[in-house]
């Protein structure tokens, strides 16, 4: 009996020691996991050796940092080399990697997201572009005099109220483009609506970006995303120049596997073009291009497409119909800013579109704040309310059962509509907004959640 007692006590003690050891190991592992930064997957050296793909990105980032100390004259050669690397890499691997496909949410080609490639920095562009955005004066001189003037001074001071996890990046950086594609794919969006100006043209604060389109298409294809074009209001935009530019886009990029084509109710596969500030041009000019009898008609030609106009005021819906457009979108992320961006008007707009054989594409956004570039525009700020504003917009969009939902935006940082990862940052007198108490990827996760919800509800609509 004594021996049995001793053995029983020994076994109990051994089990307790073993249990404590296991708990100790688990505690160590949890502590290490907690120490790992959230953004390690997109450029931090911590832990990147775990995956060959990420290790390769670390080498690229290290060489990019070293290049800052090189002479300025190297910039053009460096950009050219990086473009060659990006294009050659994508040519060598045109189909998505199976493992990556399993890890990411499937793309939803009815979720379109506005994307901007107008950012630049000294490493890739020889100077900062757009991050150094000027402070825009109010149109009333009396009001303008009450606000600061000048421009932002990156990298610590940028033209945005939030600060990107990737820093003041260049849109030419292949590692940045790939990080963006991975984020958009993780959000279960499917179509990138790429801001586009014709070759040699740009917005007043930027530089031409058409040469980036092939790189964006290649990386989009790697992540099974599609690309369509958001045609900006370039100088002298009219029926003739639009015909020329649509032809240019389709001839140059239309054969790429990532080029988006939308399947219509009649079974046709057509390119789609969003036309920003379309209301600036009178309906008669658009009708020349977009109606069958128009003098510059693109209809029933190899360059026919779906053209989506921006609706701001209620009267624009009649102009859009008269112009020959195929649909309308609302773009602005400020609920109440315009008739089109006001959620309570979406039901009547959808009804108008349905009765006139037009597509209605509501635009949802996570919030709005542009006081970093328009310091006088506080009244249009819309607080994100920790994601509730975004979810309210999605809920309003789903109520009208749209064929497509557009998202404003992935990375329009100036207007604070981005869902790209942002991080807390404080520099001198500037304290940037952030997504706390949530992680930097919270708006990507919310987008993915609503993408799945939309898919399920759409199945019910079609039954």
TrEMBL record:
<protein>
    <recommendedName>
        <fullName>Glycoprotein endo-alpha-1,2-mannosidase</fullName>
        <ecNumber>3.2.1.130</ecNumber>
    </recommendedName>
</protein>
<dbReference type="InterPro" id="IPR026071">
    <property type="entry name" value="Glyco_Hydrolase_99"/>
</dbReference>
<keyword id="KW-0735">Signal-anchor</keyword>
<keyword id="KW-1133">Transmembrane helix</keyword>
<keyword id="KW-0333">Golgi apparatus</keyword>
<keyword id="KW-0472">Membrane</keyword>
<keyword id="KW-0812">Transmembrane</keyword>
<dbReference type="GO" id="GO:0004569">
    <property type="term" value="F:glycoprotein endo-alpha-1,2-mannosidase activity"/>
</dbReference>
<dbReference type="Pfam" id="PF16317">
    <property type="entry name" value="Glyco_hydro_99"/>
</dbReference>
<dbReference type="GO" id="GO:0000139">
    <property type="term" value="C:Golgi membrane"/>
</dbReference>
<comment type="similarity">
    <text>Belongs to the glycosyl hydrolase 99 family.</text>
</comment>
<keyword id="KW-0378">Hydrolase</keyword>
